[in-house]
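Sanity check. The docking grid for 2-acetamido-2-deoxy-beta-D-glucopyranose depends on where the pocket ends up, so I'm generating a full predicted complex first rather than guessing from homology. Inputs follow.
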Amino acid sequence: MASTQLIISGLIIFSIFVGVEGSNGYYHYTVDQCRFSSFDLSDLEYIRSMVFNNDQDIVFNSTVGKYVGYTEHGVQNAEEWNKLPGELERMRGEKERYCRRNTQNDINYILTKIVEPTVRLRLRKSSSGDQPAMLVCSAYNFYPKMIKLTWYRDDQEVTGDAISSEELADGDWYYQMHSHLEFTPKAGEKISCMVEHTSLKEPKELVWDSSMPEPERNKIAIGAAGLVLGLIVTAAGFIYYRTKARGRILVPSG
Ligand SMILES: *[C@@H]1O[C@H](CO)[C@@H](O)[C@H](O)[C@H]1NC(C)=O
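Predicted complex below; grid placement will be based on this.
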């Protein structure tokens, strides 16, 4: 009978404690954490912390196995809760009940998920005067976050100031990364960007054709198209002229 009362009073203390939230600008909150650093969950730890106005006053840490108070009020409560029959067993069980199942799902469905990046190498800026040119090597929509983009000029790794990178979270679990290379073009040299990601069996190499930068290629393509169009028009005109001329000869003039 006495123990039942203790449990009940304990539960009341507990629920009042959790329940007084947000009124009159004060706030109390409880955070449950499952912490682990290895996929076999050998170091899995369950932590429940209770915070009042930014001050953590009680913590249950599964490795410690009991409540520990950090404020005067917290110490009092911790002492009382630690004596509640069944309370510590229940809390110690949370590591298996609550944490193992959830973290195993995190591991199975999120942490081991691998998505290959879409990669692209393009010229951002051609060199003009003494301004260097800029290439951008981009990787889109990949997971997990860890990725490596490396620049090579004639198979020699480029390091230092010539390179700047930005890594962005798309906000939907995917990431993108852009690496910029500033360079002064040299005829016939090979520039490449090497992408390494856990989704790729071997690094992916993107090679820049430095002999003919993109704008030049476009100019040549437009020029060639113009030439072909000109030839067609000329040929058509010539055929038209010939037909007309022959027609005039065939029809006897009166
Ligand atoms: C839980 O307690 C263990 C043992 O004292 C400690 O090593 C660990 O850092 C604690 N965890 C947290 C999140 O404070």
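Relevant for the grid: Residues 35, 45, 47, 61, 63-64 surround 2-acetamido-2-deoxy-beta-D-glucopyranose (CB under 6 Å).
Also worth noting: The radius of gyration is 36 Å.
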